[in-house]
Amino acid sequence: METNLLTSIKSPKDIRNWPVAQLEELAREIRQVIIETTAQTGGHIGASLGAVELAIALHYAYDTPHDKLIWDIGHQAYAHKLLTGRGENFTTLRQLHGLSGFLKRRESDYDVWEAGHASTSLSAAMGIASARDLRHQGYRVVAVIGDGALTAGMAWEAMNQIGQTKTNLVMVVNDNSMSIAPNVGAFSRYLTELRAAPAYTRMKQEVEQLLDSIPVFGGPLRKSAERIKDLLHRAVLPRNVFEELGFKYYGPIDGHNLAELIPVLRNAQLVEGPVVVHAITQKGHGYRPAEERPGEFHGPGPFEIHSGKFIKKTQPRSYSQVFGQTLVELAQEHPEIIAITAAMPDGTKLDLFQKAFPHRFFDVGIAEQHAATFSAGLAVGGMRPVFAVYSTFLQRAYDQVIHDICHQDLPVILGVDRAGLVGGDGATHQGVYDITFLRAIPNMEIAMGKDELELRQLLRAALDIPHPVALRYPRGAGRGVDLNGPLVPIPWGKGEWLAEGEDATIVAIGPMVYPALAARDILAHEGYRIGVVNARFIKPLDTELLRQVTHETAALITLEEHAVAGGFGSAINEWCHDQGLFLPVFNAGLPDEFIDQGSTDYYWNLYELNGEGIARRVRAWLPQEERIKKQIK
Ligand SMILES: Cc1ncc(C[n+]2csc(CCOP(=O)(O)OP(=O)(O)O)c2C)c(N)n1
After folding, report:
1. 166 is catalytic
2. Deepest of 315, 397, 469, 581, by most Cβ within 10 A of its Cβ?
């Protein structure tokens, strides 16, 4: 398809005098580019197709980048990228060194705010608007937030402040009634009612016009007349929740109708104080398979355009699948098991549990903090809650994990999914900090198996532990190991000494055990004697095993797909120090920097976390004389 209009524009300025029909044609071109590109690269196609007209109308109605446009999460902003000079690089979306799948301040002046996690846009907008007011500047601030993101506490904390301070700010609610899965909760239900009430809006407009037509006079008379109008207004009109909070409300309007959107957005910027524009959109709009299967098309990998079929390599079952299936198995015999997700039933594969035990499954919306404390409450009430959450989103619930779960030493199991590098989603989604932040909490126990079989066995074992447990597992396919045997729990706190080695021993956590074994083989050919330990437990460490190992080896290499700072290696360092052990320890892991999108293979190679890389590090690090001495012996 030709994209003449799109290629003709260098910046949003170029479209600001176009007629609506031309903008509609532009929308068609943008949709086509989004579909063709994501069919190759994968990505957030559904949300982005749903926000094409919103992006055009916002850049049309506002003087961006002077006016500040803030997208919540940033996954729906592909049209925004295409309108702001990134068309040529668009095929690099989500690829190594390519365009980010979210917004990036270093990518464009139009990217005012970076995110990846939900529900930050309103707080950010309030901060930017307050800075503007304090500095007596005149730009406008617009935030676009989805109905899913509006389920999070943060959004309400921001609205609470915005409604009170009455600053000039426009909040566009991009309401498609979907989070990743269908949206949940009482507020979602409320939005549905609001959506279905255009009659309310019409009536409201009519009454408002009527009230405006009442003449007012100057001075004190004017004040009391205004007050009377306000009282009348309240008496005649029901006020919706946004209005109660102090916003002016425009809506619901059709978020795919440019002729409707543009004047409303223009008017909204003329209003004093905060405004809500409630736009009704459809996830996947304009691409039939995404319209029909919005959940699957939230963030798929590559797909066939004509059929909407996903192009998938045959791979072993994913860790999430194994976790979800094992939990279903265990729940058959343990009626006290409850599964909790914060808006990720498909991603965490708790949808399997939802199907099997709908009454013991809770999707609480994008509300990780609430999910953690809700789990704690369930535990106090005698249930066995299992909250499966991506490592990166668990960051949100840190205080709740400390204060509500661990402080009361409650037996909540955290299924820490996507623990490790995540690929295309990049820096905001890497699951590489949780060991550091969980390890510091008293009562917390943390484990990670070397493969999906150990994940099953650890989950079974965790059920018997009367304390909080964080069970980590990576994103993506398992190793394809046989899962058919009986589900035997791993003895709690016990690691596995896989190979002995006098020169040094690699103590690895999680699937890093396998590259450790590969490095051992490579180095064995060169005369090095390298041992390997599958640690399994980060907290408590298997100190008995570590004591035996350190008697038999000259040095330790710790290995983790996690930040070195405060991570698994740090736990080993602390233990060595405590024991007064003076053997050399090298910590292999991830550096102290945010890691952008790119394949895990690429980063394993870059950070020397694959077999070759570890072997290189060991060669460079092991004291040469030691090695020679040992070889002579
Ligand atoms: C704190 C947090 N939890 C979970 C997610 C995963 N996530 C990404 S998009 C999304 C749905 C957002 O729904 P909505 O705001 O309605 O936007 P839509 O995708 O429907 O346009 C979720 C749950 C996230 N980004 N941040």
Report:
1. no
2. 469
**Does 627 participate in catalysis according to the annotation?**
no
Question: Which of 75, 80, 154, 428 for mutating ligand 1's site (highest number of atoms within 8 Å of CB)?
Answer: 75
> 316: cis peptide before it, omega within 30°?
no
Q: What pTM was computed for the model?
A: 0.94
76 CB near ligand 1 (under 6 Å) = yes
Ligand 1 nearest-atom number relative to CA 152: 1
Instruction: Identify which of 500, 572, 560, 507 has the alpha carbon closest to the alpha carbon of residue 531.
Output: 500
Phi, psi of 303 (to 5 degrees): -150, 165
- The rounded distance, in Å, linking the Cα atoms of 40 and 22 is 28
368 is catalytic: yes
Centre of ligand 1 to C-alpha 173, Å, is: 13
**Model pLDDT for residues 6-37, shown as the tens digit of each residue:** 999 999 999 999 999 999 999 999 999 999 99
Q: What structural domains does the chain harbor?
A: 4-205+241-292 (3.40.50.970), 319-472 (3.40.50.970), 496-632 (3.40.50.920)
Q: What is the pLDDT of residues 445-466, one digit of tens each?
A: 999 999 999 999 999 999 999 9
| Residue 605, both tokens | 């190679």
Q: Is 181 in the pocket of ligand 1 (CB under 6 A)?
A: no
